Amino acid sequence: MFDRVTFNQANVRGALTRRQMLRQTSTGFGLLALQAMMSEGGYAMPLTPARSAELTDDKLPVSHHAAKAKHVIFCYMSGGVSHVDSFDPKPRLRQDHGKPMPMKVERTQFNQNGNVMASPFKFKKWGESGLSISSMFPKIGEVADELAVVRSMTTNVNEHAQGNYAMHTGFPFIGHPSAGAWCNYGLGTENENLPGFVVLQSGGAVVPHGGVGLFSNGFLPAQNQGSILQADRRPAVENIRPGLSLRDQRNHLDLIQRLDESYQASANHAGVEAAIRNYETAFEMQTAVPEICDLSKETEATREMYGLNSAESDKAAYGRQCLLARRLVESGVRFIELSCITKGIGAGGAANPWDQHGALEKGHGAMANQVDQPIAALITDLKQRGLLKDTLIIWAGEFGRTPFSQGSNGRDHNPFGFSIWMAGGGVKGGTAYGATDEFGYHAVENPCNVYDLWATVLHQLGIDHERLTYRYAGRDVRLTDVHGNVLHDILA
């Protein structure tokens, strides 16, 4: 057997490297193992849409069943929106305002728990469905018949960073792919000049607690990670700007690709192929991104509808994200996430602006005012253009808030029951699914979790969540882990 020095000297004389020798001489063992596995009917990795696509002549994605949606827009409300002040009315809170909670109170994040606290916002029934929505969202109330509100969402975590990871990836820690990355991996993009997973920011919005790992590709190929676009900056993506002529850039990329492909042939490293694809996407983005971010051709009526002309800078900035999200859908981007903007005094920190442990009425009111008109405009605009049926909109934060006060006028985190909603993409509008108890504390009817949410989203995209897997660390990992049930009751 060669030692390291002897083998390296032999390699200089043209002999096989150790890696090459192991690869070539171990093939027989690999075939024997594969034959044994195949004979038992147990395949190492299920055929995903992406792998199915690679086997077709036209390279189109292959779905597991007929899709009701092609695109996803994730309106993420970082910080934890109070469900009992927004989409889950609880008259009992007003009845018992100021009284001690008549049930066991679980430990909260800060454990400075007060008495029952009535909502400072009034609820009203909207639309033909009579869906109850608070006065925080008068514009969203006007499109209530498009919403499927889930009032029984739960989570196992009670802290922002863990909650953000759990909501984005299904796991409360870094290292797993974001839902956007999974969707892009499973279906690919409809526009090769743009990333398949885009995260929009504007108005100084920052990444929620947990960092950019929330948008990570994790162990999936690198081209599936989220690309952050600054909706109100030029350039929208740092470093995506020409430093050379297009001809010189093309020559450079062609050379890099030849070198990478040569290395790939010997190393067989999946990251090399992903790097090649990322280089190409970045090259094409130089033209595609400035064009898609140019809103000058939008009509004045459209700009007004989204709130771009508002004197309130945060509303205008969020409106720009919503309008750009519509344009990205039109351009074939698969998954788009929108980012909330800090509203200053009365709101939470920059990374979690819905986090009102005090002054909830002021902070929640300010944040709702920021997103209400733009999101309602997005739903209306997509519907008018015939795009809402193909676009699934998700509105959610990482947890809810307690029905009792923290201090005199705030609420702490509540993971035991809270609300999210979906619209478009084949969901049943004007629907309220599940319920919390009469105080809004615990989910008591049809409790569900983030795995059920993403199982439902994948289902609408034409993907069986149990079959969308990736072999990692010796197991077939999926977005929904070993959980998840499609919420068929909210689907049309």
Please, could you describe this protein's structure?
With 492 residues, this protein is of the alpha/beta class. The chain folds into two domains: 4-39, no CATH class; 50-242 and 292-490, Alkaline Phosphatase, subunit A, CATH 3.40.720.10. The protein has helices at residues 4-12, 18-25, 27-39, 49-54, 91-95, 138-142, 160-169, 179-187, 246-267, 270-293, 300-306, 313-330, 360-384, 450-460; strands at 71-76, 113-116, 123-126, 131-134, 147-153, 197-201, 227-230, 335-339, 391-396, 400-401, 404-406, 413-414, 418-424, 431-433, 435-436, 443-445, 470-472, 475-477. The strands form six sheets. It has an eight-stranded mixed sheet with strand order 7-6-8-1-9-13-5-14, with helices on both faces. It has a two-stranded antiparallel ribbon with strand order 2-11. Helix 9 runs antiparallel to helix 10 and helix 12 (313-330) runs parallel beside helix 13 (360-384).
